[in-house]
């Protein structure tokens, strides 16, 4: 597999050719053909909005859900659309009730927005949140399992856990964790924001109680396309954040779960309806389809990580088997006395990276000031030379502070 040139022509994506874009993991770029398909759907809506929303939308959403469910490996009757994984996490946490003294577990790697959500849920119910300290750098998956199980007690009711960590880009061994918690009748809420399109998924076989994932990242769908899967024994208790007509619908041809999530008020559903086309389009881009895309992105992320590590003389912070299409590399400590705060950048190194060298890549405070990491993403429009360029720039920034 040749990593020296992109797997597909970058001009198929509307990316700025003057920017080295290495941050697909934050907001993935959507192919031009998929955006055109979405616009066709929007035009169809506006030609006869009443006809579309009242007579066409539900069966179209059913078709789209079936396509996505087949892609992520779960029954379509358990999958509903949300706008993003953060909404999926909030949906579950707002639906559940806890008692004073109940313990909710979350890892120190969990996305900040979702950590805020679980703390809000705990405070509302008088429950307690315990933070699992998963190390980074890390030597093995077993360290993750051990870190989780150390915090489990007879009061544990729910674990919120990443499938792929956002800041540190690690694939966590969630199947092993879910199995061990299931033996203790503890529910799991999996934040799979980065997993769909990065990893081959079979959500049903994982056994998670709840699983939410984004489609606008590694599937390359339009923004605001995401899903929430709920296991069959829990669907009656999960309600959307917006309560609408489905709450008292007299219909008996659909479950209450699908009725409530199927209509949450007037909104643009074009991103979700684009998914069947998007999944097929991406599959057609290279020989081998989705499997080849995932393999290319993983190999490129590993090669890019190695190129940067070589420039900075840094050892791999986690095993290769814990890497998908994201990789984080520790950087020298920040030279600032206080944490960096800016509306435009996460770290003061990002200003020269984007404004002088035209490289879009996140530099993230981790786990706390002054520690930092740089997180690279690998997508089919990227090539190894881009990460080599980033490595050389990071080396210069490091040397300028020594």
Give a quick set of tags describing it.
about 400 residues; alpha/beta; Aspartate Aminotransferase, domain 1; Aspartate Aminotransferase, domain 2; 2 domains; three-stranded antiparallel beta sheet; about 40% helix
Describe this structure in words.
There is one protein chain. With 402 residues, the protein is of the alpha/beta class. It has helices spanning 32-47, 49-72, 85-95, 112-125, 141-151, 174-182, 203-206, 256-262, 270-273, 275-285, 289-312, 350-355, 384-401; strands at residues 20-21, 79-82, 103-107, 128-132, 156-162, 187-191, 210-214, 226-230, 326-331, 359-360, 363-365, 372-377. The strands form 3 sheets. The protein has a 7-stranded mixed sheet with strand order 2-8-7-6-5-3-4, sandwiched between helices. Strands 9-12-11 form a 3-stranded antiparallel sheet, covered by helices on one side. Helix 4 (112-125) links the parallel strand 3 (103-107) and strand 4 (128-132). It is globular, with a radius of gyration of 22 Å. The two termini are 38 Å apart. The relative contact order is 0.16.
